[in-house]
Structure formats: structure tokens, C-alpha cells
Amino acid sequence: MPDSTMKSPLGRPGYIQAASYGDADVLRLELDHIFKSSWLCVGFANDLQNHNDFITFQVGPHSLVVQNFKGVLKAFRNVCSHRFSRLQTEPCGNRALTCPYHGWRYDGEGRPVGIPQNETAFGLVDSDRAALALESYEMDTVGHFVFVRMNSPGPSLKAFLGEAWEALAHVSDICVERIEQISYEVGANWKLGVENGIEAYHHPLVHSDTFSNVLQQDILMNVYGPHCTHEGALTARSRRWWDTIADKARLELSDRQRDYVSFLIFPNVVTTFTAGALFTFQTLTPINASRFRLNSSSWLAAGSGAARPLVIGSLNAFSARVRDEDLKICEIAQSGVAERGIDRPPFLGEVDNRVRHFQAAYAERMEAQHV
Ligand code: FES
Ligand SMILES: [Fe+2]
């Protein structure tokens, strides 16, 4: 074990065992102890503007649906009360909350109010319909972002997010246009994805020709509850690029943050806010113990300059390159961590300070150190 054999004044063992990055039993515990009790970002308010607009979100085996019922947003388990079919099958769309199997239709309280052949086959009265209502979840929004908490009771979204609530409200006011939305699977445990997203130590090797040109290496961490931020300065080259772009595209920039700040919203949201103009928002959600889904969106400040389409194309091409580099290294890291017989946590240095914070928050919620 590193802590008994090494005398480093700065490095120490982390809190998550290597074997936890590929174990189905650990994932079941994570769903119960971390995901169900946290507010999870499941999508965007922009996609839920009209009656019957819906979004779905999958976490492990669980599917949630958030749907607009005449202007009121409600969140339910995405499983029919009849014989348990999936209700909404697309990531988003506009469709009544009706089961595709036998046609039970649900209202905003989750009650089955339209049941084919009810009189002759089921005979359900109002009290039966209430008893057969869908399992509902708490939901709330801040700015562009829709959050759901599966377990009740618990803290409000605002209390859970702490400083991140105001930050999300602010960037939603500034970064009004969604310029990219993409979703794909990565062959790695979700924790590897989060940990990769919150440290900059890998930038010189993994992003030698991309992100390394953007961000200086000195990065400052701030902690609030299980969440944390990294703040850093843009390189001179990036600063010049953004100054030119802000001018040409007439971007309406934030007056608060003109360099770079990255938020980790525990457990699985990683965001960056760059040059007071560009916000990226990523959720990393387990599919199974060795696979996660990355949902990534980018939002740009308003602006009326003719150069805007070119700027958007350039930003999206850059993001795609960085994501691809991260995806590849996560899958390489997973192939190492998936080896059997490694019975210790990682050895973390000062450069891993946000990884350490994430692992400590994780271990605390799993109710055991060195899970
Ligand atoms: S399973 Fe949904 S209506 Fe039958
Ligand atoms: Fe990266």
C-alpha cells in the first residue's frame, strides 16, 4: 500500500479502490447511495416549453421522464402501471404520456385516466386510478437546466447546489444559445469520466495540441460541500483569440468571469465557463459498471456579429477534438483499472486535489472509506 511504504509529503492514497471501477455490485450501491439521493440534471428547459413536450433520462437500469402538462413540469418513473412497459421511448419529443403497449394514458398527477376497455375489462374507479399512479419524483429547474431527485425527502435543489445554483442561473442568462448537443457512450466507468473531467494534470499529454493551448497550468480549487470549482487563467494566445472573437461576433460577455472556471456538481456534472462567453455542460451517467453515457452541450453568449456562424463552427470543432481525446484516454485508463487483483486506491498528489475531493465525497456517501 502506498501509505505504508511511501513517505511523500504531498501525495496520499485516494478513497476509491481500483476494483470499484468495474463492479456491478458497487454500481448498485452507487445508484442507491449516490444517484437516487442527489439532484441529477436530466435535460434542458428549452426542450420542455410546450404541452406534452417530454425528455427522458437513463441512469443505470432506471429511466425517468419529465413532461410538460399544460405548462406544469412533472417527473415520473418511465414505467407503465399496467404491465410495466416503458412509456416514452425517445430522448425527447412531443407526445402524450401514453403507454405504447396497450394505450394507458396518464395525467399530470401520474394517474391512468385513459384506459382502453376500462368498463369491460378493468372497472377502475377514481380511487383505483390514484392507487395506480406512476411513481413521481421531485423536480426543479435553474436557468436552462432541469434536475430530478429520485429519493425523498431531501434538500431543495438550491440547497443541494449551493454556490452552483447562482452560477447556473448566471451562465443561463449570459449563454443563451445552445450551439451544440451531443450524446454518446464511453467504454469506461462513470467515475473515471468524472475524474478525468475535473483535473488538468492530463492536459499536457492528452490535449497537447488543443486544451493545453487554452489554459495555464496554475489552477485554484474552491470547495463547497461535495461540489468544487477550478479557476484558471487563459493563455495569452487564447486571450487574444477570445478578444478578437468577442469583438467580431459582438458577444455580450459576462462581467463576472472572463477567464476560466470549471464546476464539478456532485456526483456527475462537469461544466466549464470560458472567457465569459462559452459554457459547456456535461453529465456522465452510468450505463453499467464499465460504460457511461456522456451528454454534452455548449452554450454561447448572445451576439449579433456576422462572424457568429464561423465562431460556432470553430468552437464546436475544438470541443469535438477535446472530447475525442478524453474519450480515448478514459477507455485506455479503464482497461488498466479493470485488471483484477489490484487491491488499493490510487495515489493522489496535489495536482489531483479535485479528484481527492470527489473521492472523499463519494466514500462518505457510500458509508465506508475505501469502497
Ligand atoms: S403495459 Fe402499459 S398499457 Fe399495458
Ligand atoms: Fe481532458
UniProtKB/TrEMBL annotation:
Keywords, comma-separated and alphabetical: 2Fe-2S, Iron, Iron-sulfur, Metal-binding, Oxidoreductase
Cofactor(s) for this UniProt protein: Fe cation
InterPro entries: Rieske_2Fe-2S, Rieske_2Fe-2S_sf, Ring_hydroxy_dOase_asu_C_dom, Rng_hydr_dOase-A
Transmembrane segments: none
SUPFAM superfamilies, per the entry: Bet v1-like (SSF55961), ISP domain (SSF50022)
Domain called Rieske: residue spans: 39-148
GO molecular function: 2 iron, 2 sulfur cluster binding; iron ion binding; oxidoreductase activity
Top-level lineage group: Bacteria
PANTHER family, per database record: CHOLINE MONOOXYGENASE, CHLOROPLASTIC
Protein name per the record: Rieske domain-containing protein
